[in-house]
TrEMBL record:
The keyword Transport does not apply. GO terms for molecular function: ATP binding; metal ion binding; nucleotidyltransferase activity; RNA binding. Its cofactor is Mg(2+). This is Poly(A) polymerase. PROSITE patterns: HD (PS51831). Gene3D superfamilies: Beta Polymerase, domain 2 (3.30.460.10), cca-adding enzyme, domain 2 (1.10.3090.10). It comes from Nocardioides szechwanensis. Keywords: ATP-binding, Coiled coil, Magnesium, Metal-binding, Nucleotide-binding, Nucleotidyltransferase, RNA repair, RNA-binding, Transferase, tRNA processing. It comes from the Bacteria. InterPro entries: HD/PDEase_dom, HD_domain, HDIG_dom, NT_sf, PolA_pol_head_dom, PolyA_RNA-bd, tRNA_adenylyltransferase, tRNA_CCA-adding_enzyme. Residues 373-407 form a coiled coil. CDD domains: HDc, NT_ClassII-CCAase. SUPFAM superfamilies: Nucleotidyltransferase (SSF81301), Poly A polymerase C-terminal region-like (SSF81891).
């Protein structure tokens, strides 16, 4: 915290002078101790929002009070995003979707209502004295997520915290305390009172984290995934074509990890669309397989069914139309190149592939290549060669089209005539 000491101590003095306490809390305290980067400075204070606003106004570069209903005033200070929230002690109505907010009168009271011990630490400013009433430092050292009180009470106050456990496991690479896992398993169905948007936000952070496998595995093993993303655990029942390899669920997690390895092609930043497409690319399989086993005829290949299921799920989770279009397009197109293996695609078939992919072509390259890598070695090599050939063909076609587009419509004689040569 030495790096930001001048900023936070200065703000702390201003609150003290006005007769109020101020403490850095939650994410930045945790991340500073882990040596992770952070840009948000979250504070808790004894001051009421009006008072906070009065103190921040002359200090910050730009002020906003988006979270005023929750007692939060925010401002920008140089590169930092500062948010100051009045001490809270929340009273929950267990049947309602939203926590009701009541202001509290102590930092300890504010910390006890936080989700995990590693998020329930504070540093008072100025002076920078650590407040760690629930053993967050020890849990940080053991890299484990525990709740400050009984996990059952915590999750019954706010079931979203179960999703947050999976999200932080994926972000931090931490394990989750067995008592917490047990509570999540017992209470998974409670997630259904939480709004789709809040669930989605945690899911997005989980998927874009460095270790999504950890978070997803936790969701599946506790039964939360069955409520928020049922297509994923359904894959676990599904053996691959030859009933020889690991199930499609395991394959899916591997494809996701391969896609993350290939992400550099998309600029190196976590790419939600690409990752979500990897997660959903085979979700059509169980459904189509069942039709076949029923003896019911199915006319759709699993990629078409998969694209439909993807749309439906993303809609339920309130993703944007653009995200839904992009992800479902990738799911629908990811198998098409298999037909290229015979080398019988005409130029117009290649052009159609490029046109159908549209601005998703780079992501389609990533998804198909990620999908190639997990089959048995010989098949994987064959698929990879096929896709190499297709990419080369696309590149050649592009070059050709570029040449065509810059070649003038005039022939040599007409040019000589124009130039008087
Ligand atoms: P990041 O901002 O990097 O996602 P963070 O730890 O700051 O991580 P936020 O979701 O921004 O996470 O929440 C800020 C802090 O507020 C958390 O560290 C936690 O202490 C507390 N918090 C947020 N949501 C909840 C919740 N649903 N229940 C209990 N505490 C919460
Ligand atoms: Mg935060």
């Amino acid at each position: 915290l030495d790096r930001i000491a001048p900023v936070i101590d200065d703000l702390g003095r201003r609150f003290n002078e006005a007769g109020h306490e101020l403490a850095l809390v939650g994410g930045p305290v945790r991340d500073a101790m882990l040596g992770r980067p952070y840009h948000d400075l979250d504070f808790a204070t004894s001051a009421l929002p009006e008072e906070t606003e009065r103190i921040l106004k002359p200090w910050g570069d730009a002020l906003w009070d988006m979270g005023r209903d929750f007692g939060t005033i925010g401002c920008r200070k140089g590169d930092w995003v500062v948010e100051v929230t009045t001490y809270r002690s929340e009273v929950y109505d267990t049947s309602s979707r939203k926590p009701e907010v009541a202001y509290g009168d102590s930092l300890d009271g504010d910390l006890v209502r936080r989700d995990f011990t590693v998020n329930a630490m504070a540093v008072r400013v100025p002076g920078r004295g650590l407040e760690d009433p629930y053993g967050g430092v020890v849990d940080l050292a053991h890299r484990v997520l525990r709740t400050p009180g009984r996990p059952e009470d915590s999750f019954s106050d706010d079931p979203l915290r179960m999703m947050r456990a999976a999200r932080f496991a994926a972000q931090l690479g931490f394990t989750v305390d067995p008592a917490v896992v047990a509570a999540m398993t017992a209470m998974a169905e409670r997630i259904e009172i939480i709004s789709a948007e809040r669930v989605r936000d945690e899911l997005v952070k989980l998927i874009c984290a460095p270790y999504p496998r950890l978070g997803l595995t936790l969701l599946v093993e506790t039964g939360l995934a069955q409520r928020v993303l049922p297509e994923l655990p359904a894959l676990a029942l599904e053996r691959d074509e030859h009933h020889r390899h690991k199930d499609v669920y395991e394959h899916t997690l591997t494809v996701l990890e391969q896609a993350i390895d290939l992400e550099e092609r998309l600029g190196g930043e976590p790419d939600l669309v690409s990752r979500f497409a990897a997660l959903m690319h085979d979700v059509g399989k169980p459904r189509t397989r069942r039709f076949v086993e029923d003896g019911t005829v199915t006319f759709h290949h699993h990629d078409v069914v998969g694209a439909k299921l993807t749309r439906k799920r993303m809609k339920a989770l309130k993703f944007s139309n653009e995200q839904i279009d992009d992800v479902s397009k990738l799911v629908e197109l990811h198998l098409r190149f298999h037909g290229y293996g015979d080398g019988e695609w005409t130029d117009s078939a290649v052009r159609r592939y490029v046109r159908d992919a549209g601005d998703q072509l780079e992501r389609l390259h990533v998804l198909t290549r990620a999908d190639c890598t997990t089959r048995n070695q010989r098949k994987a090599d064959r698929l990879r060669r096929t896709y190499d050939a297709l990419e080369e063909r696309i590149a050649r076609l592009r070059e050709q089209e570029e040449l065509d587009s810059i070649r003038p419509d005039l022939d040599g004689n007409q040019i000589m005539e124009l130039l008087g040569i």
